[in-house]
Amino acid sequence: MSLALCHENIRVPITALAPCGPLFLAAEGPFLSFFESVHYKLLATARIFKSHVIHGIVVEYRSFSDVAVVVWGGPWIRAFHFDCAAFNTSSAFSVVPVVFSAPVKASDWILDLSLYREKPDGAFNSALVCAAVTAHNALLEVKIGRSGFPKLTLTELTSSSRSILYSAHSVWESFDRILVAAGTAFGEIILWSWERKPTAESCHRVHHVFLGHEGSVFGVQISQELLLEPSKEPRRLLASCSDDRTIRVWDISKLSAGADTEKALDETHDKERTHHTGFSNSCLDPPPTRSHCLAVGWGHLSRVWAVTFLDHEYFQSLGFFILSSGEDATSRIWALVPNPDRPNIDTDIASYTLRLMDTAEYHSGKNIWAATVTSLHPDGFVGIVTGGADGKITERMSLLSSPDRVKKSGRMVEEFSIEDIYSMASPIVKSLSHVLDNAGGCRPSTKADFFRSYAFLNESSFLLTTNSGRIYLETIASDKHVFERQNLSTSVLIDQMDELSGHSVCTGAPGLEAVFVAGSTGSIHIYWKSSLHKLHTLPGKIGSMFATSAFVEPNNNTTALLVTVQGLSHAKLLSIAIGTGQPRVTRTVNVAVSEILTGPIITSLDYIGSVQGETDYILLGFRRGSIAIYKVPRVTAETVYEEVPATLVRIIEQAHGKETVTAIKWQVSSLRPSDLKPTSGHMYSVGRDGCVTDHHIDFAQGSVTLVNRCSLPIGPNLEGLYIGNTHMGVYGFSKTRFVVYDMTNEEEVMGVDTGGSHRSWKYQQQPSTDGGGTIVWTRASTMHIFSQVARSYRAIRPGRHGREIKAVAACTNDESEFTKRLVATGAEDTDIRLFECWEGNFVGCKTLRKHTTGIQHLQWSADGEYLFSSGGCEEFYVWRVRTSGAQGVVGFHVVCESICEPQSEHSDLRIMTFEAFEFYNRKDKWVIAMVFSDSTIRIHSYDPTAAQKWQTLSKGTYFTSCLTQCTFITPIAILTTGTDGHAVLWPLSSSTHRPHQSDPRPPDTLDWKQPNRIHQSTSKTLASHSICIGWTLIVSGGDDSSLSFLVINHTSLSSPVIHAPTILVRAHASAVTACIVLQRVSKTLVVTAGNDQWVRLWDVQIRGIETRTRDEDMLTVKRVCKMKTSVADVSSMCVIENTSEGARVLVCGVGMELIRIEEPHSGPPVPRMVLPAAPQKRELVPYVRPTKKLWP
User: Fold this and answer.
1) What is the H or E stretch that residue 439 is in?
2) Which letter does DSSP use for residue 84 in this model?
3) Main localization of the protein (predicted)?
């Protein structure tokens, strides 16, 4: 029985979103996903169209048991209705009776479809009526029958015009009148209407043509009637966005109301409105009138795709808001406010302005294609869901408040001056007048005072010190909302000290609810249990302090504080007993610091207790990028007071290059309660190089191993990290924003504009939640507070690359340490992403960031422990990949183990492709062939254990044509293809696999042989397959849409023979860009894909192998089947698994799709499917009449 190609999973750009009562609908490609709207659990998926991408969704939610949905994409329209109660996830099985209509094709592409919704007190008709606007400005009426199977009927209300539209929006003013706004490719916005006449033919009129945009208009929307300030008269507005990056708001109230002065849409008016090209020239084009343009907004960094009015009646008391999304992968909220710069109505200045209120950057790469509002709250909170080109769906809650309350950060940030803090604390200051008298008799002036430092006492309270020596306790009041809270409820003056005047340092231990304060005299104070105590005195001015956040010895309630004193060559580690009495120092440890080895400045600390009996360890980070490990005696309950030295154990040089190590966290390897003295664990650290490192330390063996190092999209100023039960979080500054980043899920948790890192600040995460926290900072001599008790957004579905995927590779070793299939993808966004493909689902993700150009090629080692990657600028990296184990919180342990240094003068060549061939009987040693964009080929050997890891073995030069593909035929023969359509062999020297030498000899010169013409132009993809011992099949896909098959006899390693190629012309309708070969039992199968978005399966039969003779008809190629893929610009594919039950192939390009190769099911089509509760992904099978074809 013949094989079949079946869709299994997909990750392509999200193109449409829509709430649907208890459900939420999301479109990607031709598929529609059903989520429940509370926790966004995926319930089912359905293929709506055969190949066209879904562009829009309209929902008619009449009741819980009567929901109708209309979907359109390209020229196709389809409708279905269902009962929401059928999506019952509580039981083990659920039957989903979704009744689909047959898809109907319109005469042109549909840009907008609006549903006529009757008044609440009106009776519902049995049929739904929709209005559709096409790409040539025609209006269609779509009627959808509701009884039985939905039946769609299209009626043309107006004919097409010469306008080429990029966007449109229609509004039903009544059942007999439709108002349409259409944005053209030349910067025009055409406002016109259609009206149904009961006694005559219907008519359509153009009301106005708006000019002003300097580029194509990509999005328009008409608002409902609004009451704008100051007139409070009902006005209808039009919002538009364009290629020129602007958002404009137009007043169309009078234009859409009157019909006496309207012109008919005839030949004369066509000429009047099409003279404008969109690229204005002041000498030729008349100046656009300001009479209808109310406001212009700038904010997006590139093209703006869509605008939406947030004009629900809930928000009209707060203002008028617009949601926009664009190519820069951001969504922004704007407020329409009166322009204070407009002196009078006769001026040319716009009467309103668009003020940017909020910016969300939760997608990677480019383009947000879909945005919708999911929830509305009368107090101003709105839920916004966006879908991007990265396949990610996010939901965030935004507060639509008065524009005057929103600062430059775009969030609700409270500001307090030093005078505000003094005023809040003044009632208590009067009762503490003796404090001021002891400090100097008179109260110092606040004009010369400013904020000095901050330290958190717990998650809702913090201490601050001022330049005059005052210490205040500030308490943050919790708001009734769980999204943002920032109001100060109390401010208490604790004390004022002369020693803190001009210099003060404070650090907190929130886990102990204690804060340490020190000044210029060396005295150290502790604020604990609502009182300030003097703790210890050191000789000199205190430089910095670092406190542990928990007890280092829980049995005797002892914590540790590291103090540096200016002028001393060693630091002081204080052991502090915090019990029922007053805190006291029980021990002082002298920590010697080497200015030569580590540098004198300590920047971070972590304490490791209960290791190897009576020994503790401390980890110190330094400004020069090194980390030092010290051994200290363990504190016991019998310790009274002693002063002992610390012993330097090891220095990890340049753990973060030459940048500051800002934070260190220790996590033990064992989770067994019986293991009270763990001897190994992981040391996580962050630095201002923008990287997070993970060193595995075994104190028993005395070993330190770097197991993970990754760069983050935030930074480079990473300032801290925290570890939860299952998540690791990192926080720091990215340009002017403070960002909290979840490394486990690879998503931003919190972000606020603080102005940059060069200021006093302090952050405290929320331990009770999985995201958010409070940050307090100084900016422009004022204290700012931003607090968030939940994540800033929720990822409904995680995304992948934000740009086109250019390379994919799967780990094919079933005996590797990975229990699931590990896949690596590389894209134009310069990132490499690792994830596991398990039972048809994409699980987990880790991003490798080191390349500075787009990825060209990826390859796994045979054992799956190494990944090779190449790109432009001669970038070639070797990654060591390991599992993180039971204790890991990062997913995979990945380290960039080595870099092949460029050899050209300017390093501007692109490594088109490469292949790594492992040495015989020598693990982790490879011969790597690379082809470059300057027609050269280089052979390198890589040995990670040798003194010189990289050696160049051979070099060769082809014609002026660029080499594009290469593969090893034998250990000493390479085949390459290029842009001239030829395949050639490059014999290698027999000494290629020799061991590395300390004094390497000059590289050999390579010469090519046996040219074979296989394409008319470029070979875009190449795959090899071993037929049997000594014989290899080569398959090449070309730019000429052909497939070429080569059989190579290499029974003689020194002289391989290429048989005459078998060329299959017109294998695809466009360039063949990806192919793979897989063996299934006795069949040799080839899977190909191209720019025509078809995936084809070929059966290749090989004859003549037994006789070893040259045979012109050695190959017979037959196409087995084909299927349409939703992945545009297919660039690569790989085999995920190949078992007796079937095979899975991953196709990559703009997104990725998992395709299953299996035996087709026999029997009639099943009208419905029983869907299990787990796994979550479930396939909807539509009801269709047997007499009608599902796809036209």
Assistant:
1) helix 433-439
2) G
3) cytoplasm
* Burial category of 695 from C-beta neighbours within 10 Å (exposed 0-12, middle 13-18, buried 19 and up): buried
**Beta-strand relationship, 570-577 and 558-565:** antiparallel
* Helix (H/G/I), strand (E/B), else coil: 818: coil
Lowest mean pLDDT among 30-39, 350-359, 464-473, 637-646: 637-646
Helix, strand, or coil here: 268? helix
Distance CA 689, CA 730 (A): 13
Specify burial of residue 345 (Cβ count, 10 A radius: 0-12, 13-18, 19+): exposed
What ranges in 250-335 are assigned the alpha helix state H? 253-257, 267-273
CB neighbour burial string for 417-453, b if at least 16 within 10 angstroms, e if fewer = ebebbbebbeeebeeeeeebeebeeeebebeebbbbb
Cα–Cα distance measured from residue 30 to residue 673, given in angstroms and rounded to the nearest whole number: 52
Amino acid at residue number 911: I
pLDDT in tens, 582-633: 898 988 999 999 989 999 999 999 998 876 667 889 999 999 999 999 999 8
Residue 960 contacts by C-beta under 8 Å, 6 or more apart in sequence? Answer: 935
Q: Write down the pLDDT at residue 125.
A: 52
Does this model's pTM top 0.85?
A: yes
Nearest-angstrom CA–CA distance, 1117 and 1103: 12
Residue-level pLDDT at 139? 94
pLDDT digit string, tens, across residues 635-661:
765 656 678 899 999 999 999 999 999
Rounded to whole angstroms, what are the CA distances from 169 to 112, 158, 222, 508, 633? 6, 15, 7, 56, 74
Of residues 435 and 99, the one with the higher pLDDT is 99
User: b vs e for 305-342, b when ≥16 Cβ sit within 10 Å of the residue's Cβ?
Assistant: bbbbbbbeebbeebbbbbbbbbbbbbbbbbbbbeeeee
Neighbours of 927 (CB within 10 A): 22
Tell me, what DSSP letter sits at residue 1183? B
Residue with tokens 């730019």: 1039
DSSP 11: E
Task: Find the range with the poorest average confidence among 167-171, 396-400, 583-587, 850-854.
Answer: 396-400
Residue 475 half-sphere exposure toward CB, CA atoms < 13 A:
11
**Residue 848: strand pairing partners:** 832
Task: Give per-residue pLDDT as tens, 693-733.
Answer: 999 999 888 899 999 999 999 889 999 999 877 788 999 99
State how far the alpha carbon of 200 is from the alpha carbons of 112, 143, 845, 1067, in Å.
27, 22, 63, 56
Task: State how far the Cα of 301 lies from the Cα of 244, in Å rounded to an integer.
Answer: 10
Cβ-Cβ contacts under 8 Å for 53 (sequence gap 6 or more) = 15, 27, 29, 30, 73, 74, 1126
SS3 state at 249: strand
CA distances from 484 to 278, 473, 792 (A): 43, 21, 9
In angstroms, the CA 750 to CA 771 distance is: 7
Give 22-72 pLDDT, tens digit per residue: 889 999 999 999 998 888 989 888 999 998 999 999 998 877 778 889 999
Q: Mean pLDDT throughout 519-527?
A: 94
CA–CA separation, 340 and 352 (whole Å): 8
H or E segment to which residue 429 belongs:
helix 418-431
Nearest partner of 551 among 507, 604, 512, judged by Cα: 512
Strand (E) positions, 902-992? Answer: 911-918, 926-932, 936-942, 950-957, 963-970, 973-978, 982-987
Does pLDDT of 11 surpass 70?
yes
Whether the CB-CB separation of 1119 and 45 falls below 8 Å is answered with no
Contact 547, 516 (CB under 8 A): yes
Strand 461-466, strand 602-611: pairing: unpaired
